[in-house]
Amino acid sequence: MSGPVDTAVTLAALRQAREELRGVVVETPITESRWLSDLVGGPAWLKCENLQRTGSFKIRGAYLRISRLSPEDRARGVVAASAGNHAQGVALAAQLLGIRATVFMPEGAPLPKERATRGYGADVVFAGTYLEQSLAAARAFAEETGAVLIHPFDHLDVITGQGTAGLEILDQVPDAATVVVPTGGGGLLGGIAIAVKAVRPDVRVLGVQAKDAAAYPGSLERGRPTPLTRMKTMADGIAVGLPGDLTFAAVRDHVDDVLTVSEDALARAVLALAEREKLVAEPAGAAAVAAVLDRPELFAAPVVAVVSGGNIDPLLLGKVIRHGMAAARRYLNLAVTIPDVPGGLATLLGVVSGTGANVLEVVHERISPLLQVDEVEVLLQLETRGPEHSSAVLAALGGAGYAVRTSAID
Protein backbone atom coordinates (compact mmCIF):
# COMPACT_ATOMS: atom_id res chain seq x y z
CA MET A 1 0.00 0.00 0.00
CA SER A 2 1.20 3.52 -0.72
CA GLY A 3 2.51 5.64 2.09
CA PRO A 4 1.35 9.15 2.98
CA VAL A 5 0.49 11.08 -0.15
CA ASP A 6 1.52 14.47 1.19
CA THR A 7 5.05 13.74 -0.09
CA ALA A 8 3.58 14.17 -3.59
CA VAL A 9 0.48 16.33 -3.00
CA THR A 10 2.09 19.44 -1.57
CA LEU A 11 0.72 22.91 -1.01
CA ALA A 12 2.78 24.07 -3.97
CA ALA A 13 1.27 21.32 -6.13
CA LEU A 14 -2.23 22.34 -5.07
CA ARG A 15 -1.57 25.98 -5.88
CA GLN A 16 -0.14 25.01 -9.26
CA ALA A 17 -3.22 22.89 -9.95
CA ARG A 18 -5.45 25.82 -9.08
CA GLU A 19 -3.68 27.90 -11.73
CA GLU A 20 -4.02 25.12 -14.30
CA LEU A 21 -7.75 24.86 -13.61
CA ARG A 22 -8.35 28.60 -13.75
CA GLY A 23 -10.85 29.37 -16.52
CA VAL A 24 -11.96 25.73 -16.66
CA VAL A 25 -13.58 25.19 -13.28
CA VAL A 26 -15.79 27.64 -11.41
CA GLU A 27 -14.69 29.04 -8.05
CA THR A 28 -17.96 27.96 -6.54
CA PRO A 29 -19.84 30.27 -4.18
CA ILE A 30 -20.00 29.81 -0.46
CA THR A 31 -23.15 30.89 1.33
CA GLU A 32 -23.92 31.31 5.02
CA SER A 33 -26.78 29.12 6.22
CA ARG A 34 -28.78 30.73 9.01
CA TRP A 35 -30.65 27.59 10.02
CA LEU A 36 -27.45 25.54 10.25
CA SER A 37 -25.79 28.43 12.10
CA ASP A 38 -28.59 28.31 14.67
CA LEU A 39 -28.01 24.58 15.13
CA VAL A 40 -24.24 24.71 15.63
CA GLY A 41 -24.29 27.93 17.62
CA GLY A 42 -22.09 29.91 15.26
CA PRO A 43 -21.48 30.61 11.58
CA ALA A 44 -22.19 27.70 9.22
CA TRP A 45 -21.37 27.90 5.53
CA LEU A 46 -22.24 25.83 2.46
CA LYS A 47 -19.56 25.31 -0.19
CA CYS A 48 -21.73 24.92 -3.30
CA GLU A 49 -19.92 22.43 -5.53
CA ASN A 50 -23.37 21.47 -6.83
CA LEU A 51 -23.06 24.73 -8.80
CA GLN A 52 -19.77 23.61 -10.37
CA ARG A 53 -19.57 22.79 -14.09
CA THR A 54 -21.20 19.37 -14.69
CA GLY A 55 -23.04 19.78 -11.38
CA SER A 56 -20.31 18.42 -9.11
CA PHE A 57 -16.70 18.82 -7.99
CA LYS A 58 -15.51 16.01 -10.27
CA ILE A 59 -14.41 18.24 -13.17
CA ARG A 60 -11.56 19.50 -10.97
CA GLY A 61 -9.71 16.19 -10.75
CA ALA A 62 -10.80 14.84 -14.12
CA TYR A 63 -9.58 17.86 -16.07
CA LEU A 64 -6.28 18.10 -14.21
CA ARG A 65 -5.57 14.40 -14.78
CA ILE A 66 -6.47 14.40 -18.48
CA SER A 67 -4.81 17.73 -19.28
CA ARG A 68 -1.49 16.33 -18.06
CA LEU A 69 -1.51 13.34 -20.41
CA SER A 70 1.21 13.14 -23.04
CA PRO A 71 0.28 13.62 -26.72
CA GLU A 72 0.72 9.86 -27.20
CA ASP A 73 -1.67 9.06 -24.35
CA ARG A 74 -4.20 11.60 -25.59
CA ALA A 75 -4.21 9.93 -28.99
CA ARG A 76 -5.25 6.61 -27.40
CA GLY A 77 -8.28 8.18 -25.71
CA VAL A 78 -9.45 7.83 -22.12
CA VAL A 79 -11.78 5.46 -20.28
CA ALA A 80 -13.49 5.87 -16.92
CA ALA A 81 -15.94 4.17 -14.60
CA SER A 82 -18.54 6.18 -12.73
CA ALA A 83 -22.07 6.24 -11.34
CA GLY A 84 -22.43 9.61 -13.05
CA ASN A 85 -20.54 12.59 -11.65
CA HIS A 86 -17.01 11.45 -12.51
CA ALA A 87 -18.43 10.36 -15.87
CA GLN A 88 -19.55 13.89 -16.63
CA GLY A 89 -16.28 15.36 -15.42
CA VAL A 90 -14.26 13.05 -17.66
CA ALA A 91 -16.60 13.56 -20.61
CA LEU A 92 -16.43 17.36 -20.41
CA ALA A 93 -12.68 17.41 -19.81
CA ALA A 94 -12.12 15.12 -22.80
CA GLN A 95 -14.39 17.27 -24.94
CA LEU A 96 -12.53 20.45 -23.95
CA LEU A 97 -9.19 18.80 -24.75
CA GLY A 98 -10.32 17.08 -27.96
CA ILE A 99 -9.88 13.52 -26.66
CA ARG A 100 -12.16 10.52 -27.19
CA ALA A 101 -13.78 9.24 -23.97
CA THR A 102 -15.54 5.99 -23.05
CA VAL A 103 -17.35 5.71 -19.72
CA PHE A 104 -18.54 2.52 -18.01
CA MET A 105 -21.53 3.03 -15.70
CA PRO A 106 -23.29 0.64 -13.30
CA GLU A 107 -26.66 -0.63 -14.45
CA GLY A 108 -29.36 1.68 -13.13
CA ALA A 109 -27.18 4.80 -13.08
CA PRO A 110 -29.38 7.93 -12.88
CA LEU A 111 -30.78 8.84 -16.30
CA PRO A 112 -29.84 12.55 -16.17
CA LYS A 113 -26.22 11.60 -15.44
CA GLU A 114 -26.15 9.18 -18.36
CA ARG A 115 -27.71 11.71 -20.73
CA ALA A 116 -25.37 14.48 -19.63
CA THR A 117 -22.35 12.20 -20.12
CA ARG A 118 -23.45 11.36 -23.65
CA GLY A 119 -24.20 15.04 -24.22
CA TYR A 120 -20.56 15.87 -23.53
CA GLY A 121 -19.60 13.47 -26.30
CA ALA A 122 -18.55 10.34 -24.40
CA ASP A 123 -19.50 6.78 -25.31
CA VAL A 124 -21.43 5.18 -22.42
CA VAL A 125 -21.34 1.45 -21.67
CA PHE A 126 -23.30 -0.18 -18.81
CA ALA A 127 -21.44 -2.84 -16.83
CA GLY A 128 -22.17 -4.38 -13.43
CA THR A 129 -24.30 -3.33 -10.48
CA TYR A 130 -21.69 -1.51 -8.42
CA LEU A 131 -18.92 0.94 -9.25
CA GLU A 132 -16.22 -1.66 -8.57
CA GLN A 133 -17.68 -3.89 -11.31
CA SER A 134 -17.82 -0.99 -13.75
CA LEU A 135 -14.23 -0.15 -12.85
CA ALA A 136 -13.14 -3.72 -13.60
CA ALA A 137 -14.80 -3.45 -17.03
CA ALA A 138 -13.06 -0.12 -17.65
CA ARG A 139 -9.70 -1.64 -16.76
CA ALA A 140 -10.31 -4.50 -19.18
CA PHE A 141 -11.23 -1.99 -21.90
CA ALA A 142 -8.03 -0.05 -21.21
CA GLU A 143 -5.94 -3.21 -21.56
CA GLU A 144 -7.66 -4.18 -24.80
CA THR A 145 -7.62 -0.78 -26.52
CA GLY A 146 -4.74 1.13 -24.94
CA ALA A 147 -7.08 3.84 -23.65
CA VAL A 148 -5.85 5.60 -20.49
CA LEU A 149 -7.87 4.77 -17.40
CA ILE A 150 -8.97 7.90 -15.53
CA HIS A 151 -9.61 6.56 -12.05
CA PRO A 152 -12.48 8.29 -10.22
CA PHE A 153 -10.39 8.98 -7.12
CA ASP A 154 -7.16 6.97 -6.70
CA HIS A 155 -4.64 9.08 -8.63
CA LEU A 156 -2.43 11.92 -7.41
CA ASP A 157 -3.64 14.32 -10.11
CA VAL A 158 -7.26 13.56 -9.26
CA ILE A 159 -6.69 14.07 -5.53
CA THR A 160 -4.77 17.27 -6.24
CA GLY A 161 -7.50 18.60 -8.50
CA GLN A 162 -10.21 17.94 -5.93
CA GLY A 163 -8.02 19.54 -3.27
CA THR A 164 -8.26 22.92 -5.01
CA ALA A 165 -11.73 23.19 -3.46
CA GLY A 166 -9.99 23.19 -0.07
CA LEU A 167 -7.86 26.18 -1.05
CA GLU A 168 -11.02 28.03 -2.08
CA ILE A 169 -12.68 27.21 1.24
CA LEU A 170 -9.79 28.74 3.18
CA ASP A 171 -9.89 31.87 1.03
CA GLN A 172 -13.64 32.21 1.46
CA VAL A 173 -13.86 31.33 5.18
CA PRO A 174 -10.38 32.05 6.58
CA ASP A 175 -11.55 31.49 10.17
CA ALA A 176 -13.12 28.08 9.50
CA ALA A 177 -12.87 25.66 12.44
CA THR A 178 -14.49 22.59 10.89
CA VAL A 179 -14.79 21.39 7.29
CA VAL A 180 -17.26 18.58 6.54
CA VAL A 181 -17.01 16.64 3.28
CA PRO A 182 -19.21 13.97 1.61
CA THR A 183 -17.08 10.88 1.06
CA GLY A 184 -17.14 7.95 -1.33
CA GLY A 185 -13.74 6.87 -2.60
CA GLY A 186 -12.05 9.67 -0.69
CA GLY A 187 -10.60 11.82 -3.47
CA LEU A 188 -12.47 14.97 -2.46
CA LEU A 189 -12.05 14.36 1.27
CA GLY A 190 -8.36 13.52 0.96
CA GLY A 191 -7.62 16.44 -1.35
CA ILE A 192 -9.47 18.98 0.79
CA ALA A 193 -7.89 17.62 3.97
CA ILE A 194 -4.35 17.89 2.57
CA ALA A 195 -5.03 21.45 1.37
CA VAL A 196 -6.66 22.60 4.60
CA LYS A 197 -4.14 20.99 6.94
CA ALA A 198 -1.21 22.41 4.93
CA VAL A 199 -2.41 25.94 5.62
CA ARG A 200 -4.45 25.55 8.84
CA PRO A 201 -3.49 22.33 10.67
CA ASP A 202 -5.80 23.34 13.52
CA VAL A 203 -8.92 23.00 11.35
CA ARG A 204 -10.90 19.82 12.00
CA VAL A 205 -11.69 17.95 8.76
CA LEU A 206 -14.46 15.33 8.82
CA GLY A 207 -15.72 12.96 6.15
CA VAL A 208 -19.30 11.71 5.91
CA GLN A 209 -20.50 8.44 4.37
CA ALA A 210 -23.90 6.81 3.97
CA LYS A 211 -24.29 4.33 6.84
CA ASP A 212 -25.08 1.37 4.57
CA ALA A 213 -22.26 2.14 2.12
CA ALA A 214 -19.45 3.19 4.45
CA ALA A 215 -16.14 1.55 3.61
CA TYR A 216 -13.91 4.00 5.47
CA PRO A 217 -14.75 3.37 9.14
CA GLY A 218 -13.97 -0.34 8.89
CA SER A 219 -10.94 0.22 6.68
CA LEU A 220 -9.47 2.79 9.06
CA GLU A 221 -10.10 0.47 12.00
CA ARG A 222 -8.26 -2.38 10.22
CA GLY A 223 -5.49 -0.14 8.93
CA ARG A 224 -5.96 -1.01 5.27
CA PRO A 225 -8.57 -0.59 2.49
CA THR A 226 -11.18 -3.24 3.20
CA PRO A 227 -14.05 -4.01 0.80
CA LEU A 228 -17.68 -3.99 1.80
CA THR A 229 -19.64 -7.15 1.11
CA ARG A 230 -22.84 -5.24 0.35
CA MET A 231 -24.10 -1.69 -0.07
CA LYS A 232 -27.55 -0.14 -0.16
CA THR A 233 -28.08 3.61 -0.31
CA MET A 234 -29.89 6.29 -2.28
CA ALA A 235 -26.58 8.19 -2.35
CA ASP A 236 -25.16 6.59 -5.49
CA GLY A 237 -22.47 9.27 -5.78
CA ILE A 238 -20.71 8.06 -2.61
CA ALA A 239 -21.52 4.34 -2.90
CA VAL A 240 -17.92 3.11 -3.15
CA GLY A 241 -17.23 -0.27 -1.62
CA LEU A 242 -13.43 -0.07 -1.44
CA PRO A 243 -11.13 2.91 -0.76
CA GLY A 244 -8.12 3.35 -3.00
CA ASP A 245 -4.57 3.00 -1.68
CA LEU A 246 -3.75 6.67 -2.22
CA THR A 247 -7.03 8.04 -0.95
CA PHE A 248 -6.95 5.72 2.07
CA ALA A 249 -3.49 7.04 2.99
CA ALA A 250 -4.66 10.64 2.55
CA VAL A 251 -7.72 10.09 4.75
CA ARG A 252 -5.77 8.12 7.34
CA ASP A 253 -3.06 10.76 7.64
CA HIS A 254 -5.01 14.01 7.30
CA VAL A 255 -8.67 13.49 8.25
CA ASP A 256 -9.83 13.73 11.86
CA ASP A 257 -12.80 11.38 11.60
CA VAL A 258 -15.25 9.78 9.18
CA LEU A 259 -18.89 9.84 10.28
CA THR A 260 -21.91 7.99 8.90
CA VAL A 261 -25.50 9.12 8.33
CA SER A 262 -28.76 7.26 7.78
CA GLU A 263 -30.96 7.32 4.69
CA ASP A 264 -33.51 9.35 6.67
CA ALA A 265 -30.84 11.93 7.48
CA LEU A 266 -29.81 12.17 3.81
CA ALA A 267 -33.44 12.70 2.79
CA ARG A 268 -33.95 15.38 5.45
CA ALA A 269 -30.82 17.17 4.24
CA VAL A 270 -31.94 17.15 0.59
CA LEU A 271 -35.30 18.56 1.71
CA ALA A 272 -33.72 21.22 3.93
CA LEU A 273 -31.35 22.39 1.20
CA ALA A 274 -34.21 22.69 -1.29
CA GLU A 275 -36.61 24.33 1.16
CA ARG A 276 -34.28 26.59 3.12
CA GLU A 277 -31.42 27.33 0.71
CA LYS A 278 -33.15 26.87 -2.68
CA LEU A 279 -30.31 24.49 -3.59
CA VAL A 280 -30.79 21.23 -5.46
CA ALA A 281 -28.50 18.54 -4.05
CA GLU A 282 -28.33 14.84 -4.74
CA PRO A 283 -28.34 12.63 -1.62
CA ALA A 284 -24.56 12.09 -1.85
CA GLY A 285 -24.02 15.82 -2.20
CA ALA A 286 -26.10 16.49 0.92
CA ALA A 287 -24.22 14.05 3.17
CA ALA A 288 -22.19 16.71 5.01
CA VAL A 289 -25.32 18.73 5.71
CA ALA A 290 -27.05 15.55 6.91
CA ALA A 291 -24.30 14.99 9.47
CA VAL A 292 -24.56 18.55 10.79
CA LEU A 293 -28.36 18.26 11.03
CA ASP A 294 -28.05 14.93 12.82
CA ARG A 295 -25.44 15.84 15.44
CA PRO A 296 -24.77 19.59 15.44
CA GLU A 297 -22.94 19.37 18.75
CA LEU A 298 -20.01 17.61 17.02
CA PHE A 299 -19.13 20.57 14.82
CA ALA A 300 -17.22 23.56 16.15
CA ALA A 301 -18.13 26.80 14.36
CA PRO A 302 -17.39 28.30 11.95
CA VAL A 303 -18.41 25.18 10.03
CA VAL A 304 -18.10 24.68 6.28
CA ALA A 305 -20.25 21.86 4.84
CA VAL A 306 -19.41 20.92 1.27
CA VAL A 307 -22.45 20.33 -0.98
CA SER A 308 -20.57 18.14 -3.43
CA GLY A 309 -23.12 17.52 -6.18
CA GLY A 310 -26.57 18.37 -7.49
CA ASN A 311 -27.14 15.79 -10.22
CA ILE A 312 -30.37 14.04 -9.28
CA ASP A 313 -33.15 12.52 -11.34
CA PRO A 314 -36.30 14.66 -10.90
CA LEU A 315 -38.34 11.55 -10.12
CA LEU A 316 -35.90 10.52 -7.42
CA LEU A 317 -35.85 14.08 -6.10
CA GLY A 318 -39.61 13.92 -5.57
CA LYS A 319 -39.31 10.60 -3.73
CA VAL A 320 -36.44 11.82 -1.59
CA ILE A 321 -38.28 15.01 -0.64
CA ARG A 322 -41.37 13.01 0.36
CA HIS A 323 -39.16 10.65 2.36
CA GLY A 324 -37.47 13.63 3.97
CA MET A 325 -40.80 15.16 4.94
CA ALA A 326 -41.87 11.87 6.49
CA ALA A 327 -38.56 11.55 8.35
CA ALA A 328 -39.02 15.10 9.65
CA ARG A 329 -42.56 14.21 10.83
CA ARG A 330 -44.15 16.51 8.33
CA TYR A 331 -46.74 13.85 7.43
CA LEU A 332 -49.24 12.09 9.68
CA ASN A 333 -51.37 9.02 9.16
CA LEU A 334 -54.48 9.23 11.34
CA ALA A 335 -57.31 6.81 11.91
CA VAL A 336 -60.18 8.71 13.59
CA THR A 337 -63.44 7.20 14.79
CA ILE A 338 -66.46 9.48 14.21
CA PRO A 339 -70.24 9.13 14.52
CA ASP A 340 -71.82 7.80 11.32
CA VAL A 341 -74.22 10.72 11.01
CA PRO A 342 -74.72 13.50 8.43
CA GLY A 343 -72.11 16.18 8.93
CA GLY A 344 -69.80 13.93 10.95
CA LEU A 345 -66.95 14.10 8.44
CA ALA A 346 -67.39 17.85 7.93
CA THR A 347 -67.12 18.40 11.67
CA LEU A 348 -63.91 16.34 11.84
CA LEU A 349 -62.36 18.18 8.91
CA GLY A 350 -63.34 21.47 10.52
CA VAL A 351 -61.26 20.59 13.58
CA VAL A 352 -58.31 19.60 11.37
CA SER A 353 -58.67 22.78 9.33
CA GLY A 354 -58.61 24.83 12.51
CA THR A 355 -55.13 23.47 13.31
CA GLY A 356 -53.71 24.58 9.96
CA ALA A 357 -52.87 21.04 8.82
CA ASN A 358 -53.25 20.21 5.13
CA VAL A 359 -55.45 17.20 4.27
CA LEU A 360 -53.84 15.08 1.55
CA GLU A 361 -56.19 12.10 1.52
CA VAL A 362 -59.47 10.95 3.13
CA VAL A 363 -60.73 7.34 3.19
CA HIS A 364 -63.82 5.95 4.95
CA GLU A 365 -63.53 2.57 6.68
CA ARG A 366 -66.96 1.18 7.63
CA ILE A 367 -66.22 -2.53 8.17
CA SER A 368 -64.21 -3.28 11.29
CA PRO A 369 -64.85 -5.34 14.44
CA LEU A 370 -63.54 -2.34 16.40
CA LEU A 371 -66.43 -0.12 15.26
CA GLN A 372 -69.89 0.16 16.74
CA VAL A 373 -72.92 0.05 14.44
CA ASP A 374 -73.25 3.84 14.51
CA GLU A 375 -69.53 4.58 13.96
CA VAL A 376 -67.22 4.96 10.98
CA GLU A 377 -63.42 5.21 10.88
CA VAL A 378 -61.86 7.93 8.76
CA LEU A 379 -58.28 7.49 7.55
CA LEU A 380 -56.55 10.83 7.06
CA GLN A 381 -53.21 11.67 5.55
CA LEU A 382 -52.12 15.10 6.73
CA GLU A 383 -49.22 17.43 5.98
CA THR A 384 -47.97 19.40 8.97
CA ARG A 385 -45.20 21.88 9.70
CA GLY A 386 -43.26 19.42 11.84
CA PRO A 387 -43.32 17.54 15.17
CA GLU A 388 -44.72 20.38 17.29
CA HIS A 389 -47.51 21.06 14.80
CA SER A 390 -48.29 17.33 14.60
CA SER A 391 -48.62 17.22 18.38
CA ALA A 392 -50.94 20.23 18.26
CA VAL A 393 -53.15 18.49 15.66
CA LEU A 394 -53.42 15.40 17.87
CA ALA A 395 -54.18 17.52 20.93
CA ALA A 396 -56.95 19.36 19.08
CA LEU A 397 -58.55 16.11 17.94
CA GLY A 398 -58.33 14.64 21.43
CA GLY A 399 -59.79 17.81 22.89
CA ALA A 400 -62.71 17.54 20.50
CA GLY A 401 -63.44 14.05 21.85
CA TYR A 402 -62.15 11.97 18.95
CA ALA A 403 -60.45 8.59 19.40
CA VAL A 404 -57.33 8.67 17.23
CA ARG A 405 -54.78 6.08 16.14
CA THR A 406 -51.69 7.53 14.54
CA SER A 407 -48.40 6.68 12.88
CA ALA A 408 -45.84 8.53 10.80
CA ILE A 409 -46.02 7.94 7.05
CA ASP A 410 -43.06 5.92 5.76
From TrEMBL:
Broad class of enzyme this protein falls into: lyase
Keywords on record: Allosteric enzyme, Lyase, Pyridoxal phosphate
E.C. numbers: 4.3.1.19
Domain ACT, first and last residues per copy: 333-410
Record-linked CDD domains: ACT_ThrD-II-like, Thr-dehyd
Pathway: Amino-acid degradation; L-threonine degradation via propanoate pathway; propanoate from L-threonine: step 1/4
Domain of life: Bacteria
Reported cofactor(s): pyridoxal 5'-phosphate
Quaternary structure, from the entry: In the native structure, TdcB is in a dimeric form, whereas in the TdcB-AMP complex, it exists in a tetrameric form (dimer of dimers).
Family statement: Belongs to the serine/threonine dehydratase family.
Protein name as it appears in the record: L-threonine dehydratase catabolic TdcB
Annotated source species: Nocardioides fonticola
